[in-house]
Amino acid sequence: MLSTPTSKMLRSIGDKIPGYEWGPEATSSNEFGIVSALKTLGYTDAECLDYDFDRTYAEMDNGRPVLLSGYGDVPGRGRRGHVWLCNGYQEMVWRFEETRWFWHILWLVYEKTVWYEYADYLYMNWGWYGNGNAWVDQEDWLTNHHQYGELSLNSKRKGYYNLVPKKTKWPIALDGGNSFELVGGISPGTGSTVRPVNP
Fold first, then answer.
1. pLDDT at position 3, please?
2. Which residues lie below 8 Å from residue 78, measured CB to CB, with a gap of 6+?
3. What number is the average pLDDT over the span 57-68?
4. How far apart are CA 117 and CA 92, in angstroms?
5. Cβ contact 180:196 at 8 Å
């Protein structure tokens, strides 16, 4: 695999996560290690809590992405966990109408009933090279994994909240003696930059 400055930077970030284990098919950590790494990266208020849709909605409504995590059974591999980016929400509304006809004395009359049903959807960026990214019902985190097929990640659902970057200069050392500094934290679309420290 080709090593690029971005891949080196991401590896350096991964190395900052306490208990992070690298593997050929997957990497692993725990929620405490992830929160510790987020704080090291300048997200000093980051916290991991049980998933709460209202909290998730409020975070995104204020322009902040949310990391989510869950566990599921992978065929032939047992129980596995995953952490991914949730960066959108929408409410789906369905309008239903029912008309009933019946006889009333000598006339044929009808009665119309209208009702609405709602469901909240979250946009899940699973981190699998775009595979399976989709709008998912917030009550059922079901995805189609490119390798394992249908995968439900509904067990031990967690949310990583307060992902607000603080102004920071955090040096990221790369192989070859070069290092980069992260200016302003990592936040999609906010103009955070990575620039060479000692080119």
1. 58
2. none
3. 90
4. 8
5. yes
Angle at 38 between CA 133 and CA 156, to 5 degrees: 55
Best CA proximity match to 153, nearest among 86, 55, 61 = 86
pLDDT, the chain, mean = 78
- 179 strand-pairing partners: 173
* The pLDDT of residue 10: 63
Closest-CA residue to 113 (of 128, 101, 129): 101
H/E stretch holding 194 reads strand 193-196
Residue ranges of the alpha helices (H) in the chain?
5-15, 31-40, 53-61
What are the backbone dihedrals phi and psi of residue 145, each rounded to the nearest 5 degrees, phi first? -70, 140
Tell me the C-alpha to C-alpha distance, in Å, between residue 115 and each of 12, 138, 171: 53, 22, 56
- 43-70 burial code (b ≥16 CB/10 A, e <16): beebebeebeeeebbebbeeebbbbbbb
Reported CATH class of domain 5-85+124-196: alpha beta
If phi over 0 gives left and psi between -120 and 50 gives alpha, with beta otherwise, what is residue 162? left
pTM of the model: 0.71
List alpha helices for 21-149, DSSP H: 31-40, 53-61
HSE, side-chain direction, 13 A CA sphere, residue 55: 15
- CA–centroid distance for 110 within its chain: 48
